[in-house]
Amino acid sequence: MFSTRITKLLGIRHPVICGCMQWLTRAELVAAVAEAGGLGIIPAATFDSIDELKQEIRKTRQLTSKPFAVNVTLIPMGRPFSHAEMLMAAIDEGVPVIETAARDPQDYVDMIKASGAVYLHKCARVRDVVKAAKLGADMVTVVGFECGGHPGRQDVSTMVKVARAVNAVDIPIAAGGGISDGRGLVAALSLGAEAVVMGTRFFAVRECPAHDDIKAALVSADEASTGLVLTTLEPVRALRNQVLDRVGELENKGASIAEMYPLVSGRRGLKAYMSGHADDALIPCGQGVGLIDDIPTVAELMDRIMSDAGMAIERVEAMVSVPNQRG
Amino acid sequence: MFSTRITKLLGIRHPVICGCMQWLTRAELVAAVAEAGGLGIIPAATFDSIDELKQEIRKTRQLTSKPFAVNVTLIPMGRPFSHAEMLMAAIDEGVPVIETAARDPQDYVDMIKASGAVYLHKCARVRDVVKAAKLGADMVTVVGFECGGHPGRQDVSTMVKVARAVNAVDIPIAAGGGISDGRGLVAALSLGAEAVVMGTRFFAVRECPAHDDIKAALVSADEASTGLVLTTLEPVRALRNQVLDRVGELENKGASIAEMYPLVSGRRGLKAYMSGHADDALIPCGQGVGLIDDIPTVAELMDRIMSDAGMAIERVEAMVSVPNQRG
Lengths: 327, 327
Description:
Chain A is α/β, with parallel strands linked by helices.
């Protein structure tokens, strides 16, 4: 229903990107998003080897002929392979869209651009948006304070950050953080974005591999059910639960990362996702969780987002009074 | 240019409310906003006596025949008169719109409603929006985490909170926090709001009585130039400066409010506003300060907001592809 520079660039029908979520945006979910007209993203951080990443890319391609992306988040991952090796795997497999995130991508841009892939960078500060544009990114995703996972350290909300990012660069901007429905999509487009990134909303869909009890916890949560931890290190927004509270206590006491690691490790999250124990780990999710009331299929969700977006536009248009009623 | 339930209820041309700011939204600014087609609000908290409040209301009425409001924020103010006396003064003077804020307004609703004034309540939690609607408020203003002054304690952003508030009640919602231009107005309307509240943007206008050097500090600030203090008490978002840093340090050490009071008092703020020393006090302002680049008149600003809003709608409409282009 929308045609923007981003839908054209990515070759997608709808300006909706399913944000990459470690362990969750696996082939089935990524392919379902692609088939529904959006862009899904495979996070390289999910895999224990380059071969597993390549297998997942191939599996995704078997499930859809439409475009999808691979994300390489440029923070240390404690894996026996480098960020460059992950990027090269995606390039070797001919993935059409590659996303870097979180740190300066300077060392990798040439390699990605030479491959012919569409290149996007995801970041949380306007200055990083400007840097990515200068380096040659085709588009940038910018996320606000309210987003799940890693909102950065500036605590600047989506409403302000997106408008500022749009002012700052000429390349198109995708907006993430606090957007869970068609109204949020139209709000982001109004600010000047040309697509949205939704993570939490695609956490609570049928095709997401998390246990049903985790998805039920998201449906039960409201807009105030998330909190930030690791704020002095690399802030993470997650569901409020006993682990989040405990990590917060440890942080306030000045605990080392080694002391907190057993509580916040990705493996602990994976185990909780699969077993359904929403209290046993950090469950990254954004404030947009307060707008989630059900567990639709990806296709149902995408139809609803587009339908709600259409209604939001009609509602705003109906508020515009004709010029001679001015004054 | 827009007609919504709120423009009709308040009798204003544009769905733009200038948020009340202690010391700043005086008669001249409030009247300028009214003359430009929005709603200005006189904060009762600016005055040392009921008589001064009444004089200000009369002065405003001399400057404009259009509607304006009086705000009574229901937190202890350390003044020798009560919240009820302030409300009664506004009622006695026939102020057409009365706003309560911050605390449960239950004890005052009958009195306000009986006066025939339009009654609005301003709050920062969805549960308070619901309560205000039940009590009989004609509309509610809800402010997000990014707003200047008092964003509440839930840290929920405008993008999420406004959508949730619209879902929760049938009365119209005005949205505040992070909105400084016409794009933000259209974004808020897209979420389902029927007006916006802008505080910080109207701080940096010609008619605002603050010293030019304070306004220059707002123009210099970017979206990350604000911080929250008094988070365990009643959070305040203000410009990052030496006073904000010092209060933050005292808070972290567990200082009492008595120890912090000399730094955060309203009188200290008033003195800084008037002398132009932006480093000498807490200067409440929201993240939307990052979108402010000049000091227009209120009339110029309102024209620009409406013009930018029109362009934002056109831009979104241009993104909508015709049905037979759907994929």
